[in-house]
Structures are given as structure tokens and as C-alpha cells.
């Protein structure tokens, strides 16, 4: 662990501080180049854009640039550590956008006093970008912020911890339940956590067939039930009329555990209480609700997934956000709607059932990967994700009437 700590610090410090840089895409060597790039030549696209605002997509990088924006109030599972502490994660998201979907990103960390202050800051700069990826903003403020920004911005605004996580969770869950021989409509589900990721994951699972009344959600005060008077409007949607109060009470006989809360909160004893062939998604980062080695030592009929890259079954929003934005940008979708999210779920889910190419095995360090308990979801390094998810999302945007452009010719053909 100490070794990983030092390696991670060195990775971020060297060869230059941070993980991303800006590169030039046009010649900028001679006076002629500069006369085109800057004064006087730059005045020409200025005039064109002033005349026809859509030309900003033709003459600038706007259409392939996403702002990754946080206030640092829910950094992974580490809590509210402030905007500057969130910067390595936001640079990390920018790295993933570029590496997996060739999208340029700027990370923006906002210090603010009120929700309105944050919304105004983002809304006022939004037009500079093709899309906005909100990240690591705690609930319930994240819900208000995202709704307000969707209303005010002309470009897609997507809170990754809500929807990216939900899409990947649903893709992995449908596959895991399939492998365990369970039907999502009958599944008893326990969700530990009642914040950004939890509410969105459960809402999308319901859209994929889960029954709301079969879901028990818990926050730091225990089970969310109808007799509590401290629930915000988002938690209230999951209030059960029940006498069950603790994780022990609700985990008994549960088919599914989804953890989007904090480290080491599900014990081996609690895992033993679950129904035969359970599915456990311990998605808190960096430390899951239960370590896979403990889960697998406790029972051999469990499917266990985490948010981490160093265990099998990585249920992490990296499998979604680069690709959903790729598809949305390429048909200039004005929003990311439910149709696009569901299309992404199915594209990710279905890819796990295909043969895995040698280069993915080489990158993941696995000898083989076959659809089953240790491979329920594709690896982030699988280059087919971009083509399949982006294309499905772009098609869904067109079909649902939110795209300004047609499907590009031969889109994602190779
Ligand atoms: N694998 C992935 O792709 C992703 C994983 N996550 C992980 O999910 C977790 C939550 O993130 P997010 O939803 O953005 O954060 P939020 O701050 O919005 O929500 C955190 C939630 O966890 C609950 N919680 C915290 N500690 C406990 C506890 N001891 N018992 C029960 N509930 C608890 C909080 O309860 P209360 O409401 O009472 O404060 C709150 O409802 C993080 O660990 C994060 O890393 C998030 C996004 C993606
Ligand atoms: C993965 C991620 O976005 C999180 O843990 O917050
Ligand atoms: Mg996050």
C-alpha cells in the first residue's frame, strides 16, 4: 500500500506536475503562420462567428471540448475536501476523456458560497464548451445544480456521478443477474448510500425493470422509511413503509447489494445473510464497502464488483462518460436524455458477451476473459466501447429528436 502511495504521488509529480497538457493543432512557426493564427487572420473567423454563431463549431475547438467541473464537495468517497483537492480527480477525468474518446477537456474547480453562485459561474462560461461534465458534487445540491444548468445551457450537462455511474451499474447488474439466474423484476435490492450515485442508480435500475418497493435504501441514519421526518425530496422517493431499520434487517435475503457510500461498511457476517447467488457491487472509491477477497472468502456463490481498476468487474463511470459525450458531441445533441442513457446501458452490457481481443487482454493483464462471474462488464481499455457506445448514443439522440446533426457518414466504421 505504501508502495502504491509513493508510486501514485510520483505519477502525478513527474515528469511534469499533473496529467494533461494543451497541444497546438495548426502550424505556428513563421510570421505567415502567426498572421493566420493571430492578428490579422484571426479576425476572419471572429467576423464569421459574429455573423453566424454556429460557425463557432467550424472554426474553434468548442465542438470537441468538454469542461469537467467540480466544487470538491464529494471527492470520490473521500468527502468534502474542497475544490483544489478535487483537481487530481478532475485532471484524471480529462485524461480519460482524451485517452478513450479523443475529447479535449478543461478541468474547472469552482469555489462558491451558494448553489446559485455555482450555477451562475458555470452557466456564464458554458458556451465556451461542447458539453459540461459535472463531477464529485454532493447530494442533494447536485440535483438542483444539474437541473438548473440543463435549463440554462444550450449544450449537454451531465452529472457523471449520477448518470455515468447509473448507466454502468445497470449494464453490469443486468449481466450479473443474468449469470446468477435472477430476474431484475423479482430482485430484492439494498442500496447503501442515498446521495448522487445512489439515487440515480436506483432510478435507472427501476427504468430497467427493478421494482421500487423491492429497493431498500440506507443513509448514515439507517433505512430510509416513511416515518422519518429528516428526508429530502430525493430520499423520500425511496421511503419504504417498513419496520426494518438497519443494514442487518434489510440485507437478510437480499439478492443485490449496491454500495455507493463509503469504505468497509458491509461485513462478512452481513454478506452471509444475503440470498443464494447474490450480486454485490461495492462501488465506493477508492475503498469499497467490502473487499473482494473478503467477499469471496465468505461465500463462493457471490458476484462481486468494485469501482477499482485492480480487481475484476470494474463498475466505474469511466465505462460511460467518455463515450456518451463522444456520441452526443458528434451529432451535436442539445441534452443527454433517458433514451441516450438506456442506449448506453445496452451497448455496454452487450459488449461484455463478445470475445475479448488480444490487446485488451494484454492491457488488463488477463490470460482470458469470458462472460461470467469474473467478467460481467467490459474493460475500460476495450477500444470497441467508444465505437459501440457512441454510435448507440448518437442514434438514440437522433431518434429522440435532440440532435442538430445527422449521423456522420461511416460513423465509427473502423
Ligand atoms: N464506481 C463508480 O463509478 C462511482 C462510485 N461512487 C462512489 O459512491 C460514493 C458516494 O458518492 P456520491 O453519491 O457522489 O456522494 P454523495 O455525497 O452525494 O452521497 C454519499 C451518500 O453516502 C451516504 N453514506 C456515507 N457514509 C455512509 C454510511 N456509513 N452508511 C450509510 N450511508 C452512508 C451518505 O449518507 P447521508 O445522506 O446520510 O449523508 C450519502 O447519502 C463514493 O464512495 C464514491 O466514490 C460515486 C460515483 C461513481
Ligand atoms: C468514479 C467516480 O466518479 C467516483 O468515485 O466519484
Ligand atoms: Mg465522481
TrEMBL record:
Membrane spanning stretches: none
Residues reported in the UniProt entry to bind a divalent metal cation: 135-136, 161
InterPro entries named among the record's database cross-references: Aminoacid_DH-like_N_sf (IPR046346), Malate_Decarboxylase (IPR051674), Malic_N_dom (IPR012301), Malic_N_dom_sf (IPR037062), Malic_NAD-bd (IPR012302), Malic_NAD-bd_bact_type (IPR045213), Malic_OxRdtase (IPR001891), NAD(P)-bd_dom_sf (IPR036291)
Residues annotated for (S)-malate binding in this entry: 285, 316
Keyword Transcription regulation found: no
Residues the record marks as active site: 38, 93
GO molecular function: malate dehydrogenase (decarboxylating) (NADP+) activity; metal ion binding; NAD binding
Domain spans labelled Malic enzyme NAD-binding: 162-398
Alphabetical list of Pfam families matching this protein: malic, Malic_M
Free-text comment on the cofactor: Divalent metal cations. Prefers magnesium or manganese.
Family, similarity comment: Belongs to the malic enzymes family.
Signal peptide: none
Species this chain originates from: Thalassomonas viridans
Entry keywords, A to Z: Metal-binding, Oxidoreductase
EC number(s) from the headed UniProt entry: 1.1.1.40
Protein origin, superkingdom: Bacteria
Name of the protein: NADP-dependent malic enzyme
